[in-house]
What we know:
- By secondary structure, the protein is mainly beta.
- It is 9% helix and 44% strand.
- The chain has a single domain (4-144), classed as Acid Proteases (Cathepsin D, subunit A, domain 1, Beta Barrel), CATH 2.40.70.
Amino acid sequence: xxxxxxxxxxxxxxxxxxxxxxxxxxxxxxxxxxxxxxxxxxxxxxxxxxxxxxxxxxxxxxxxxxxxxxxxxxxxxxxxxxxxxxxxxxxxxxxxxxxxxxxxxxxxxxxxxxxxxxxxxxxxxxxxxxxxxxxxxxxxxxxxxxxxx
Length: 149
């Protein structure tokens, strides 16, 4: 999976049919106004259990909602609209932004995102292919556009 509008080529996500909305791990979330519209600036660690690469993203805010997490706690979250790539398919999806640092997956894909597009087979994984394993430095360089010796 990827979020091309946010500059994230690859992110491992969990399909969660119990969640209505999709969620992206984000931190240093800060809203700002520009041209009369609200935007949000945030950072993402797209690789599980890694601090690098760190990608800074900016997106327009489409809403703010109270979202209840799996533990039953309500939290006010920013909602953005962005392109989600699953295999060869690309479509727009609403994402809530929250810190998922302690969670196994950096992203959850909720049922609203996949409704009418995919059928979930709980016994199968990596239906679009296994993620490409890259050395951390190579992955960081590709994501940030920097080269390291």
